[in-house]
Amino acid sequence: MIRVLFVVLVAAIAAGAIVVLTGDPGHASLVWLGWRVDMTAAAAVLTLLLGGLGGAALWRGLIWVVEAPTRAARARGEARRRQGLQALSRGFLAAAAGDGAEARRLALKAADLAEEAPALARVLAAQAAEASGDLVNARVAYNAMLGFPEMRLAGLRGLMLASTAEGDRPQALAHARTAYGLAKTAPWAWRALLDDRLEAGDWSAALELVASALDRKAVSPLTAERARAALLAAAASGLETLDNADDRARALDYALQAVKQQPAFAPGAVMAARLLAAEGKGARAGAIIEQAWKTHPHAALWLAYRDLRTHETKQARAQRLAALAALSPDARESRFLQAEQALIAGDAAQARAAAASLDTNSPTARVAGLMARIAYADGKSDEARAWIARAAGAAQEPDWSDLDPEGRAFAYTAQDWARLVSTYAETGEMIHPRFERHERVMSELPQLPSAYSESAPFVRAVAAAAMMPIPDDPGPPDLPSPPPSMPQAPPRRRLASRPRAAK
Length: 503
Description:
Blueprint: H1 2-22, E1 28-32, E2 35-39, H2 41-66, H3 68-97, H4 100-113, H5 118-131, H6 135-145, H7 152-165, H8 169-182, H9 187-200, H10 203-216, H11 221-240, H12 245-261, H13 266-278, H14 282-295, H15 299-306, H16 314-325, H17 332-345, H18 348-355, H19 365-377, H20 381-392, H21 414-427, H22 433-436, H23 456-462
Helix pairs in contact: 1-2, 3-4, 3-5, 4-5, 5-6, 6-7, 7-8, 8-9, 9-10, 9-21, 10-11, 11-12, 11-13, 11-21, 12-13, 13-14, 13-15, 14-15, 16-17, 17-18, 17-19, 18-19, 19-20
């Protein structure tokens, strides 16, 4: 209608302009029912324009009157829609806040008002029942959602969580399997099935789940690679301790596959190096650890690298460890390694210089233990005892050397591996299960690995540390310094192939 009026107005303006430009007023006559009206052309155009505008206004007025009931119904519907959305919003907030009674009241109101969002109303009803602790009604609401294709996955997830809350693990897994079969991308269902396989220690089935999730694009390629690396290492760990040659060969194959997936994954690299060294392939084992160290230095890597060669001089071993540290010189673990290799070489000054970049103002027990051994190697017994005292109250951190002399690095239980797989796949971070459980380790105060011949006398002296006065203690005089000739230390710990004894 507006377009028609616009066209009429333009035509009238054009006609008036023509009349003005030509200078001819023109003539128009109208004869109707015996009446005759004579006028100029401009007056006729103006009359026609006014008549058209009046007719259009009358027509629009009639339409407005006719559509009044429809407009009123639309306004009432809009008001109900706003009230329904408000009830939904307030209901979800109440459910999130744990106010079950208010959430259920608003859920009933939303079900009556939010006719355009029935799915949201059903979800709110289920969450309100859960917030009230009414799992029965929550199950009813989630089961009702299964009848609608667009809400089926949400219903299955709710039923799975409800079954988990009730301790019905088989039923929860059944809902997860159904959801995983219905949707290509259902990460929560995949994760529930994966956690079940991890808890059971079924690494092969877990690997199949990771492969299927990657094909469906339910997980990112990086997450899948990390999960596969950790699962392969877990499988290798279970086979490594067996005496059967075929099982050990499979363990090596799994470990090498883990290294291929994630070269910097320390458990895979350490196990692959350990198995290769047992077969006399020390050069290849060293190359695997060196590549892992370049990417992400880890304390377990240099411990394994140190033990690859068990018959070498102190100087040769120190040079080999210094070369490993040089592959990633700016890393924190490289600073530790530089100090350790200097201690092996008997150069206390170099060890102190390497440790200078570590945080010695607020040291962890590991740093304090290292500084204590450096001070002792430098002939400063008082400083060593002071560092021991600081280590007693310092924060702990895993140093991955808390093994029995005949133990294996990463001698995890199936539960430990399950936790490692889950954490590493999601975040790429390593965990230390024994450290997290606060299990007693070989040396707690200070953390002094016994693998070094230079530190062995000091480790034995730690047992009498309580009898040693600290520098500012006005107690008995200091004990005499040890003689220059150090007693012969026990043989170095080698890369063991047997499981660590249970503690």
